[in-house]
Recover the amino acids of this structure.
């Protein structure tokens, strides 16, 4: 079975230095459900050793699901800057 | 036309700025191409289609009337001649297969499609017709003057226009900024994610028992989504398969025990029903996109002073249970926006009351009529039994009917009647039936 990281490695990405997804740690801290972890199709959300939520923006498929799944409004999601992000060749 | 840097007193102006070079935006541009107006389309990706994903399949029948000349050269994949619906149980499945001569006669009603290819082609076509399509150009904001939209801001410049068309997709930041869109709710969106798996054309045709250029569209309901609203899909492209899953985000949020959704596709691929279809294939892309499922209930206001909203940005998408629609709505709404702009140009009036004509055209079109006809689907889709119990019960019954083992086989009537009594003749199913009649 292919790992999710292997799947993402097939896609074409042009990564910006700056993230296009920001989280409100205060909201994340109070969240019990962690909707983002389960909903992200690229598996980019995870808790670090300090228990803080983190997101690896570099493999983002730009679906925007996290922003909608997070009903607490922690996920601030915008499009990557012009010329950056995923570049689908099939779509 | 020239660009003015920010801060210069006079900003450059065109007739129309289309934000988003996808199906809606490019269809609008196509409609406006020969109208003697300066039209510019701003696309955030490297090229049109590079940020777009579909399942997918496009129905041309409703579109030919809006875009009669477009299809002859269009880089579509296969025309769909086979419809398959598979109900998945835990360890079994039942497939209904429809073949119809009608779907195999020109003009073909529907095609499988890959958006990176199709949208790019359409952008080139529109460019040849004189519309500027500028890639790698994000729009950050609208420019307002006295409550009227008069242009857009990008990182580098400001550009003015008589009319701005928001064709910026399902997350439409523009219609949000214009105050036309309602806040997002998980109930109204589904996540679609898929793999494109390369296979040679002959293998695809043999596995699906199809002729050259013929295509199949297969939908899956049942255990693959583990009770979450949604299902699987498989479309045959010319040299690849698009295999994926769509799940409602609200339903996904509610599911216990929690499980990462990306794993569902891997498990789906392990099913023998899928394994044998994709054998020897190479995954060449993994993609994801939101699907609008709110239907008529979340349609935003689609016009304002100096602005029109089209396609996914206007929430024009619909889950019809047996198919999910959106691309035809995007293209037709783009054309209708184009027609409205031409009319507004004649009167030189781009106020909301003039652009309201767009809403009238939409209401008269198949788009809003279908969205009205299917306005109850959403409530029916919330019924978990549709995605777990019923598909499983059908396959289990079919297996019982077909089974011969060491015991003397029961009469067919008895076998069927006992299952029907157990799984279908109860108050729950009766209520589901009453609800189902609303579609």
């Amino acid at each position: 079975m292919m790992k999710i990281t292997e799947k993402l490695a097939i896609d074409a990405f042009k990564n910006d230095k700056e993230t296009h997804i920001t989280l409100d740690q205060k909201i994340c801290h109070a969240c019990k459900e962690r909707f983002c972890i389960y909903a992200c199709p690229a598996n980019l959300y995870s808790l670090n050793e300090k228990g803080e939520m983190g997101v690896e923006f570099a493999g983002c498929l730009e679906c925007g699901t996290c922003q909608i799944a997070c009903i607490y409004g922690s996920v601030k999601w915008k499009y990557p800057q012009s010329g950056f992000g995923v570049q689908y060749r099939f779509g | 036309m020239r660009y003015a840097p920010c801060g210069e007193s006079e900003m450059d102006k065109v007739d129309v700025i289309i934000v988003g070079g996808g199906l809606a935006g490019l269809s609008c541009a196509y409609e406006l191409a020969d109208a003697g107006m300066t039209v510019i389309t701003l696309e955030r990706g490297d090229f049109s289609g590079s940020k777009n994903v579909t399942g997918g399949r496009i129905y041309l029948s409703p579109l030919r009337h809006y875009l009669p000349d477009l299809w002859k050269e269009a880089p579509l994949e296969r025309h769909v001649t086979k419809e398959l619906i598979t109900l998945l149980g835990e360890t079994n499945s039942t497939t209904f297969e429809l073949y119809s001569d009608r779907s195999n006669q020109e003009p073909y009603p529907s095609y499988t499609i890959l958006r990176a290819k199709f949208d790019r082609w359409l952008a080139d076509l529109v460019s040849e017709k004189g519309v500027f399509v500028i890639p790698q150009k994000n729009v950050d904001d609208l420019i307002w003057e006295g409550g009227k939209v008069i242009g857009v801001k990008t990182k580098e410049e400001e550009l003015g226009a008589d009319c701005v068309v928001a064709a910026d997709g399902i997350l439409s930041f523009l219609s949000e900024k214009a105050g036309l869109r309602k806040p997002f709710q998980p109930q109204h969106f589904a996540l679609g994610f898929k793999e494109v798996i390369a296979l040679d054309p002959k293998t695809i045709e043999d596995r699906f028992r199809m002729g050259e250029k013929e295509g199949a569209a297969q939908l899956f309901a049942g255990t693959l989504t583990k009770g979450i609203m949604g299902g699987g899909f498989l479309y045959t492209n010319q040299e690849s398969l698009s295999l994926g899953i769509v799940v409602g985000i609200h339903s996904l949020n509610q599911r216990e025990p929690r499980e990462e959704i990306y794993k569902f596709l891997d498990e789906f691929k392990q099913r023998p029903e899928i394994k044998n279809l994709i054998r020897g294939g190479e995954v060449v892309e993994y993609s994801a996109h939101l699907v609008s499922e709110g239907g008529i209930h979340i349609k935003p206001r689609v016009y304002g002073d100096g602005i029109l909203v089209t396609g996914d940005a206007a929430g024009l998408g619909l889950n019809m249970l047996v198919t999910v629609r959106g691309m035809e709505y995007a293209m037709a709404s783009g054309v209708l926006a184009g027609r409205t702009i031409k009319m507004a140009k004649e009167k030189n009036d781009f106020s909301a009351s003039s652009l309201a004509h767009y809403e009238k055209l939409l209401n008269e079109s198949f788009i809003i009529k279908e969205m009205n006809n299917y306005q109850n689907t959403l409530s029916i889709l919330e019924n978990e039994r549709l995605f777990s119990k019923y598909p499983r019960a059908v396959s289990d019954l079919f297996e019982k009917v077909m089974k011969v083992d060491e015991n003397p086989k029961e009469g067919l009537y008895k076998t069927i009647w006992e299952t029907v009594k157990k799984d279908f003749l109860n108050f729950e199913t009766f209520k589901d039936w009453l609800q189902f009649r609303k579609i």
In short: Chain A touches chain B through 40 residues (CB under 8 Å). Chain A has a mean pLDDT of 96.
